[in-house]
């Protein structure tokens, strides 16, 4: 294989993984939007709500960790890696959503209540760390 062919193949793989990663982050964003009152993009952009912003960024960072681990675990097998990335990313999003619901019901930390607050709340920090931890756990499980 020539250098040009190697570069073209690598660039194509990067573009394919990036597309899957972006799609997963968009799905993750809309799942968080579903779990919060109001339109999430408006709550972040217009209301500049720090709790909504922290919860969203931590969830998207967790999805990024899962995508990166899936790429690493694929061992250069593109089709298998893309399929694994999509499946594991969706599983991570589902687990994060379930964790938010569990925290709401068992611990009493409601995402819906947090995003109504204009000042950063301790519960938002806790849920943000939970998102990242779930992303790390899922990522390591993929590897």
Automatic annotation (TrEMBL):
The chain crosses the membrane at residues 12-32, 52-75, 81-103, 124-142. It is found in: Cell membrane. GO terms for cellular component: plasma membrane. Its main location: membrane. Keywords: Cell membrane, Membrane, Transmembrane, Transmembrane helix. InterPro entries: DUF350 (IPR007140). It is a multi-pass membrane protein. Belongs to the UPF0719 family. This is DUF350 domain-containing protein. It comes from Nonomuraea zeae.
């Amino acid at each position: 294989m020539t250098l040009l062919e190697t570069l073209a193949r690598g660039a194509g793989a990067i573009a394919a993984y990036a597309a899957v990663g972006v799609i997963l982050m968009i799905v993750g964003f809309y799942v968080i939007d579903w779990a919060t009152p109001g339109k999430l993009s408006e709550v972040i952009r217009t209301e500049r709500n720090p709790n909504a912003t922290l919860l969203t960024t931590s969830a998207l960072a967790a999805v990024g960790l899962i995508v990166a681990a899936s790429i690493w675990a694929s061992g250069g097998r593109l089709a298998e890696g893309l399929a694994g990335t999509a499946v594991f990313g969706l599983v991570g999003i589902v687990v994060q959503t379930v964790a938010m619901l569990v925290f709401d019901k068992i611990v009493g930390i409601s995402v819906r209540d947090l995003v109504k607050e204009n000042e950063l709340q301790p519960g938002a920090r806790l849920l943000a760390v939970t998102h990242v931890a779930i992303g790390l756990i899922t990522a390591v499980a993929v590897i």
